User: What shape does this take?
Amino acid sequence: MNAVQLGELPQEALLNQYKEQGVYTDCYCVDVPRAVSQAEFVETFYTTRLFKVERFILSSLLSKPSTDEQARRLAAGEVQRFAAWTVEGRTAHQLLLCDFMGRTRSWLMSVADEATRPGSTRLYFGSAFLPKVDRATGQATYGPEFHALKGFHRLYSRALLRSAQSRLLLTKPS
Assistant: This one.
């Protein structure tokens, strides 16, 4: 199984608008040796066991519940809200979500990799974290909590993408 890699945002990535503003962004990618549609990727990502733990926490602590059916509807483009997120942007191969506080973005993209690996798909997952703006000075900064959790975020991002990859390898194309 291919390992999840830290990568560069593709030029067409919806998340690039934040990178261009100087906001912290990251991008992880992994290959799956079969065709995976964007809808299949999004639904799988948000219904893995690992992500269901996050969904449980969001439901319990923030009253932001979600179901597998809602994840399916998000993937199909039928809804604009899912748990703590709202769709900020969507294309045939990308989804950009904004959290309910407007501070973070989550981005998913699937790209058929016919040039280098015919029949395979490259899956991307990335995030953007907007800094806090001091109301008195107008200065944008990342607080100590951001720096303290950045390492965990990196590990968790890899684990989420690896979890989706594993499930996609075990399932037949939809």
User: Anything to note?
Assistant: The chain has one domain: 5-170. Strands lie at 5-6, 24-32, 81-82, 85-91, 94-99, 104-112, 121-129, 132-133, 140-141. Residues 5-170 form a domain with the Alpha-D-Glucose-1,6-Bisphosphate; Chain A, domain 4 fold (CATH 3.30.530).
